[in-house]
Amino acid sequence: MADQPTDAALRRTSRTKITPEREAELYEAVLELLRERGYDALTMDAVAARTRSSKATLYRQWGSKGQLVIAALRHGKPFDIDDIDTGTLAGDLREMARRTGRAACEDTELLQGITVAARQDEDLRLAMRELLIRPEGAVLDRALRRGVERGEVHPDNPALGYVIPALLGALIARPLIEDDYADGPYLEHFLDSVVLPALLGRPAPAHD
Amino acid sequence: MADQPTDAALRRTSRTKITPEREAELYEAVLELLRERGYDALTMDAVAARTRSSKATLYRQWGSKGQLVIAALRHGKPFDIDDIDTGTLAGDLREMARRTGRAACEDTELLQGITVAARQDEDLRLAMRELLIRPEGAVLDRALRRGVERGEVHPDNPALGYVIPALLGALIARPLIEDDYADGPYLEHFLDSVVLPALLGRPAPAHD
Fold first, then answer.
1. Are residues B28 and B58 in the same domain?
2. A79-133 pLDDT, tens per residue?
3. In chain B, is it the N or the C terminus that has fewer CB atoms within a 10 Å radius of its CB?
4. Last residue of a domain, one of B75, B104, B132
5. CATH number for the domain harbouring residue A42
């Protein structure tokens, strides 16, 4: 599921004539522009100018600004959790929390800007859900399934259905509550205090 | 804490010459305009026109658009959880989840719009934190403290520090993951599946 391109992506890929190197260059330029200006102020004109390509090419290739931006984000692999398999569910989730927290801190402005814009822009919201949240969610789901198969989590434990909103929620909510990002240590502590006790069915150890 | 006005609010109150009825009328007009146009498109000019008051009065009275909007929201008591005291922590939190979910569904567009705008508008973000999140958080903290005093939760349980981000996070994250609001039943099930097991130290019952 994580790596299955959508029909639209397949259609575009089959049409493309640009090289992987050129594609990577374009994505880098989009991320640069996003960091400089934010999503709302980013225009296809600016991307075309910065990358010396035509706007028509950009639209033909990516369909919309939202899809180009998410493709660029996904190319940068902000979370990059696909290879995690530590042998225990707690180990897997902690490593995912660490990497996600690190990515969220490095590119908080960029990711926040995208999340904000996505709430008002349906095209961007669907691209984000399809190309970012769903693939990362599928990786997390596989880790949960391994935990169930190893007997670490009861297959009927209802917490299994809430791991993604709990972690994504903590990531988004912290900056609203206090002036701080949800970094790796915060997410890991949240995981150890709330998510893992609910999943593994034992009280969290009191941290000192 | 929930009811302590800020210094700025006190300063404004001491200056005010408008009656409570007039104030309520103004807040209603602001909420109406917010539902019609959203935060970004709402102008102090429009509030002045709709309420037949002068812009100078609005600024003198509330300081900024952000503060006026949050005062109007707070006046509408969107969550209204102050009186909850069921005798058990689970009962208190479930009732809070039900009311919060109901409010979030009734005024989702409005609350989402505010949350979105708050991420780019520091004045609005501080007003939201000070006048909405902190007071509701204080009510929730009192419920947690009663749970500790009754011996339902161990005072060192680290989950105590994450109840607010967990619930606020679930509220915000669900619409990003699926096209659905975090309504009362969703929040209550999240609470039963994740937050209460972590707090009370027993596995969640498998729901049928």
1. yes
2. 788 899 999 999 999 999 998 888 877 777 777 778 777 777 888 888 888 888 8
3. C
4. B75
5. 1.10.357.10
* A124 and A195 within one domain: yes
Query: Are residues B71 and B144 both part of a single domain?
Result: no
Identify the H or E element spanning A66.
Answer: helix A65-75
Judge whether A1 lies within some domain.
no
B90 close to A (CB below 8 A): no
Å between A21 CA and nearest CA of chain B? 32
Number of domains composing chain A = 2
Please state the length of chain A.
Answer: 208
Quick check: B197 and A198 in contact, CB under 8 A?
Answer: yes
User: In chain B, which residue's Cα lies nearest the Cα of A178?
Assistant: B129
Interatomic CA distance for residues B193 and B203, integer angstroms: 8
Domain span including residue A153: 89-200
B14-53: pLDDT as tens digits: 455 788 899 999 999 999 998 888 788 889 999 999 999 9
Q: Is residue B186 part of a domain?
A: yes
ipTM above 0.90, yes or no: no
What CA–CA distance (Å, rounded) separates A77 from B51?
A: 50
Residues A122 and A148 in one domain: yes
Residue A96 and residue A61 share a domain: no
**Sequence-distant (≥ 6) Cβ neighbours of residue B63 within 8 angstroms:** B8, B12
Calculate the average pLDDT of chain B: 84
Instruction: Determine the residue among A115, A131, A176 to mutate to test chain B binding: the one whose Cβ has the most chain B Cβ atoms within 10 Å.
Output: A176
Residue in B115, B162, B193 closest to A190 by CB: B162
Q: Do B158 and A115 touch (CB under 8 A)?
A: no
Residue B104 and residue B190 share a domain: yes
**Contacting residues of B for A108, CB less than 8 Å apart:** none
Q: Residue-wise over A118-150: b if at least 16 C-beta within 10 A, else e? A: bbebeebbbbbbbbbbbbbbebbbbbbebbbee
Residue B68 region by backbone torsions, left for phi larger than 0, else alpha for psi between -120 and 50, else beta: alpha
Is A115 part of the contact surface with chain B (CB cutoff 8 Å)? yes
Q: A-chain residues within 8 Å CB-CB of B116?
A: 116, 119-120
A80 inside domain: no
Q: The CATH number of the domain where B167 resides is what? A: 1.10.357
